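Bench notes, bay 3.
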Amino acid sequence: MAQIKHNHFLDTVDRVFSHAKDCNILHLQAEGTYFDGRFIEIKGKKLYHFGTTGYLGLEQDPRLKKGAIDAIRNYGTQYPLSKSYIAHPLYQELEGLIEQLYEQPVIIAKNATLAHMAALPVLVGDRDMIILDHQVHWSVQDAAKRLKLRGVKIVLLRHNRLDLLEEKIKEWGSKAEHIWYMADGVYSMYGDFAPVKQLQNLAEKYPQLRLYFDDVHGMSWAGSKGRGYVFQEMGRVPKHSVIIGTLSKTFGANGSLIICGDPQWHEKIKNFGGSLTFSAQLDPASVGAAIASAKIHLSKEIEAMQKALQSKVHYFNRLIEEAHLPLVAHNNSPVYFLATGIPETGYTLTQALLKEGFYVNMGLFPAVPSKNTGLRITLSKHNQKEEIYALVQALKSLYPKVMKATGNSFVQLRAAFQQDFYGLKEISSTVSEDVNCQRVESIQDIAPEEWNTHMKGKGILDWNGLKFTEEAFKESTTAHEAWQFFYFRMVDAENELIVLAAFSLSRWKDDVLAPESLSKQIEEHRKKDPFWRSSPVLSLGSLFSDGLPFYCNTKHSAYKKAMRMLFQQLDTLARKHKVAQIVWRDFPFNNSWEAYFLKQGYIPIAMPEVALVEKMTWKNRNGFLQTLSSRSRKHFKKDILPYQDLVNVQVEEKVTAVRLGAFYELFTAVHQRNKGLNTFRYPIAVFKKMNSSPQWEFIVISTNNRAEEILLGVMFCYKSEQEIYVPSLIGINYTHNQTYATYRQLLFESLQQAKRLGFKKVDWGISANFEKRKLGAQLYPQKAYIKAENNFLMDELETQVG
């Protein structure tokens, strides 16, 4: 019955990226007829380039250029034949040089993504399991997820948490043949490292453990002969490990390499690796350049290049420390992440640096949590110390100004990254005295007339509805039933209303919007632990009703200040109560607030559609039928009308405790059956409160035989004072649902009751939209905006989908 359309993760990413493009942060176009690595030209402006991944500058080395040109001259622009049949002559020389470099057999692939796609299906058996570090590169995660089709279990693990890894090894030791842990050697966003030596110790302790490293960002600038960070830490690739390296990025050419500690793995990948067999081989120019680079790596010159880069790394580190700028990780890699927190700060600072003549990348969702954006700054051989100094001076000047202009603070920054960022001087508050925030914890502290004026037509979100919700949920003592409520009233110096909003703090199941199949799997675990994978959430409105309890006078000159103050208040509450997410929900799918939320670190999530009946002008059943399409009229005559004489329909306002208990059993049956919107079951106290409230009534359907009456279904309906009738919840006797078409009859009876009472609209809420449309409902897509404490919960659930 649920029939809920769920959010697609890629739609969320698309909106974030589209907004970043609109802010001129992503998908920029380099210009000019010449590129030297030191400068990059964008929109006619020559900028210092601090966004490269060619850390040693080898892509501009004359020897690599000559190697590429000679290869094209001798072999053409490509060698159009699968390498499985025959490799072009330069391949043998390249493979020989790379094997000489690593002193182990090596497989050459076209790029790292295809290397993962070639290696993982061969290495990982059907009885194995995979544990992914949360920050391992997307290309590893994507290749691994494809193995779910073979039944391979995949688990996401918090970043570099070896204690949790050991727990998983113990948990799955008797269930999986081998356990693969997959990580980056050097992580591409923060520039931090995998704890390789500790992982090796774990692999020795647990023979089932296999280690798989993507070290493309650790190549060339690190390790003896530029063999990379992971290889340097290991000394030699042991039998239980695999390294994926690169011939692009710092290596200066194109291509990737696979190094297996087990010779049998090497042969299997070489023989059966799908992308090796069915993808075109590297073009001659790439192989020619890679040969030239390999020769440099085998010479003493690579050490001089590494030392020259390290001197710049140390110089930049010292300048950053003296300037007290908030780096997320301090190390000797040429990758830096300067924390900015909310995206608006990151966008503004990136744009300001462009104006000052510096190009840097911005790290944003999904590579980092939406509230943990920052500037990803990289150094290379091309950067000279004078421009490194100039960049730091520009950051030192711009950073506090941008933080203040975007309403950010170091209190928020420290909380977002859970780091002290020692030495930062707090920015003076941007909150103006002409805006006052009034926060109360009961709707009874807000005037009913003011609230209802601005929340007109929002059903259970009127003053009485929120009073009912508060009283029904506040009294419970269990973790998932006791809710807290926060009402915000933002006014100017003359007490003119600017913003009005209602939020609730309650425990949500992490899979509340996950596909039903996944929720059913998780519910099996909850039979032992009812609160497994559930978290406190601060949400606009509550899980008891749909709708948007939010008003903002956007014509007021101080509305942006008021909204900024509200965001700060919510962040403070979130920290105090350690919530997993702040959720602004039930906005129209296309709304004017999206860009604003994106700048504040909220990501858009598609919500289930809401069904509203807005044409209540008919006078009788025949008039109602005329409002329907011909197909819907046929549906009514076939699937509803023949059953009406078989049942008895009553509207009851107050029932006995026994009857209310029977209603609750029917509601429980629906809740247990439908996991499309997976929430904790409402407690019986809520229904007892309904039974004593003049705003609630029950539409009850039972069999006609009064001697042996069978209760078939009940609809719990809220009577708003503002022209809208809300059939909020439903209970069904599933044993007889098909025989009496109970659900469809309840829908129609709620329309008739709303008409009798003079309501102009019916809010049927979410789910079962197909049935509701056939009775004249219009469907309205909705959207929520979510700021999560981190991406882990969302990414973990996404890993399990499919």
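Next record in the batch:
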Amino acid sequence: MSGTVSRSRLALGRVDLRLVLPAAACWTSAGLLVAAPGEAAYVVIVLGAVAAGALVWAGGSSRAAGRPHTDGPSWPARLLGTVMVCCAAAALAGLAVAVQAPDRYPEGVRAAIAAHEEVTARLTVASSAVPGPRAAFGGSAQVRFRATLTTLEGAPAHRSEPAPAAAGRSGRTGLVVPVVVFARVSESPPRIGEEVRVAGTLVATDPGDAAAALLFARDAAEVLSPAPWWLAWANTLRAGFAAASGTLPRDGAALLPGLAIGDTSAVSDDLDSAMKLSSLSHLTAVSGANCAIVLALALLVAAALGLGRLWRIGVGLAVLAGFVVLVTPEPSVVRAAAMATAVLVSGSMGRPGRGLSALAIATLCLVIADPWLSRSYGFALSVLATLGLLLLAAPLSRRLARWLPRPLATVLAIPLAAQLACQPVLVLLSPTLPAYGVPANLLAGPAAPLATIVGLAGCLLLSFLPGLATWLIWLAWLPATWIAAVARTSAVLPGSSLPWLGGPAGVLLTVACTAAVLGLALRRTPLVLRILSAGLVCVTVGCTLGTLVGTGLGRAAAFPADWQIAACDIGQGDAVLVRDGERVALVDVGPDPALLTHCLDTLGIDTVDLLVLTHYDLDHVGGLDAVIGRVGTALVGVPENADDALLHSRLVEGGAEVREAARGDSGILGGLAWQILWPIRGSPLMQTGNPGSVTILFDGAGIRSVFLGDLNEEAQNALLAAGPIGQVDVVKVAHHGSRDQSAALYAQLRASVGLVSVGADNGYGHPTTSLLDVLASTGTAVVRTDQDGMAVLAPTARAPAVGQTSVDEAAPPGAAGAALRVWTERVGGTRVGTTRVGSVGGSG
């Protein structure tokens, strides 16, 4: 018996869990309270009282038990002690929120946000500028960067607000408001540490967001003062390395700056999508592993030079600080640096640091220093990946060694442990499972350290030995290219992304399945638990394969062969297909080529005979790469600038005929007749931007439909005044269901179905209640992609097929008011009038 107890204590000693629960309590408290900072003070008081009560109770329990001091505290005392420490940690997080929240939302900033007024602000740049979305109305390219708003100067002099009101908000200094800035591109983008001035509009973010507001600048940022010397050196190195890497070929050139110094601005959307689908996105930018490699090299060099322990620790801390400045303090880097600092400080006191304890103390300190970090996906994934490596890598390696050579088992256990630990968070980002994630990491992982070390050496030597640095950069390009090739190959393999349940239910299911896999894989699991685990794994695999067939590989077969309209689920944006037989039209292409490609592949669409680009906002043209070379004719609006004209050139280079569309243009698509209703050629009114959205009407083959782009109320009324449209079966609702709508237009259309192409949690409140009320008043049933997923519509005869219900069985087909069948992607479908619309099973 004594031997068993000793082994048990030894096993527990290898995994020190004493700081894990307090760290988890601190993280949970911060994550909840940053969304409701006004309640933080009350929560701190309650938690403090609970901690004090637990301390008193634990002390009283120990004295009452009369246990000798050598026996240690009783188990109730230990339990209460754990509760006390966890409450104290949670209270510290709440106190940090209560102290920091007022500085993030000062009165002047709140007033500017509420008034929707233009302000002039001074900011300190906190991140490198990366390409952002096109401006909502101006159409010009933008850059996006994080910054700290330090001074709110008020609105420009030309603003019409009375002087006293403006003066009341002018000259506010000493602010520390974190913002994300969207500014026009300039010749020299802002660099970290520079002080800049911008004039623009502040928009509030969601509660708990790392940024307190978004600042949409009217022009490019004006640099007022350069970065301090301790940041300027890193800016110079980053810019030089990015320029040198940009001369290299293709994907390797795009990935190398991210692997070496954390600069991901050159990574294209399709490459980024491939990295995510293959579960290699953690390699796209600098991670904690890079930090560990650099620190280990620094300590080895210091030891080789014969430095003492304290000197080695000092060198390690200095290298850590410099590395964080160079690669910028992203969450994963900060976590790794804090953890390494804990280990080094512990070593300086002669106490070798344990990995789990160092991770817990680093998490505690970082969350207390910045409670909003608790809601960072990057931080969560970094912590969980490290936790998985510390807890799971070794036992998984031992288990795999029963069937594989030990070196291979060890190499395979590392990505498997990290994947299992991170998957519950990953399903929140994308409700899918990467089928080839572990093999892809197994192939690409060994190349990452080489790209990091050699690339970083090339970056540091670029200013002193440019010839040698160039050779090193070329050498680092090789593993970067290999990683990109693995990502692209994995992403296009069949079933690379398996559908999974999303939201909190998906997280719980993922946790349960992870526990089941570990229960089967690790030793000493009771037989009953092994049987239950095997059952859960079998059921999950069966459901996943069934969902894959229902919503992925088999979805095209499940949809009706005569479908005429399909609204792709591409988030906040438009991409709607209209088809008759083999002829296909596509109205807008959404914001992301990968999402549009997935939709086209699902529906089996190879070519687009007619492409309509209603206007040039990113959420309507961003996915154009998915159809370049596959378009016959493209109808476009009036270009607003050279960037818009470049889109036309790219379509022409891909073999398309490009024509500017206007009212009166018409044509045939199979058995469908189409005509352009808006804009009016030659009229100076509303020719560009949202009001100039190309509006197209399709008629024939059973469904009459109209697509309104992003027309606002004024343009919709002008469209109505230009001539009658008549009743339609389907209307693609304008501007994702914003409130800027004409009730008179929808009253004339009297559509059976209103398609709302909109992203979940889009932040704009789309579709608005006022728009939904307008559609309800006209008897138009709403089908929205954020709730229903991809929607497919087809005409039907009087007797609907099994599993589908017609919208209006009494109406004759072939005219407005025709019977429709509607399939929606997600379970439960949607309601049209008083009938249930059929759905293709699966979580979408």
